[in-house]
Amino acid sequence: MTDLDDRLIPKVKTLAEKYGKQLTFNASTTVSGATYNPATGGMNSPEPSLVVYTYYCTPPAPCKKEWPGGEQTPDGSLETLLPSSGLNATFEGTLLEPGLLVEFDDTNHVVTGIDRIYSGDQVAAYQLTMQTRSWTA
């Protein structure tokens, strides 16, 4: 960890909490491993469950980003910065990926892209690109 990491990473979180907006991330997880069902003689598949995480992020704003090859992001794309400090390890390590469902301002979105912003050796924030979607949690 660098000196800049030590100073910048907590500052990103502090600023998001002071000036940002709470976003709710809905991740579907599955308990690992099927179990034997003696009544049917078969295997029961694990049921997915919804895990909810709420974090302060920068207020989502229209995205003006090009994808590789020069394509523009689709109309209506939004982006936000999610501070890395204070994230749940499971959320950050396995659930923070495209397809993650996000709610804010009574609207539903899906993460379509994630870029890491480094302050030195460590990730200070994640830049999330999102599209509006209709879904039910």
Brief characterization of the structure:
With 137 residues, this protein is an alpha+beta fold. The chain is 18% helix and 44% strand.
Outline the secondary-structure elements:
Layout: H1 3-19, E1 21-30, E2 35-37, E3 42-44, E4 48-57, E5 61-62, E6 78-83, H2 89-95, E7 101-104, E8 107-118, E9 123-132
Antiparallel strand pairs: 1-4, 1-7, 2-3, 5-6, 6-9, 7-8, 8-9
Query: What share of residues is helical?
Result: 10-25%
Helix count, per DSSP?
Answer: 2
Helix/strand structural class: alpha+beta
**Strand segment count:** 9
Q: How do the helices and strands follow one another from N- to C-terminus?
A: HEEEEEEHEEE
Low-confidence stretches: none
Distance between termini?
38 Å
Major pleated sheet: 7 strands, antiparallel
Average pLDDT taken over every residue: 86
In percent, how much strand structure appears in the residues? 35-45%
Whole-angstrom Rg: 18 Å
Shape: globular
Q: Give the strand order of the largest sheet, numbering strands 1, 2, ... along the chain.
A: 4-1-7-8-9-6-5
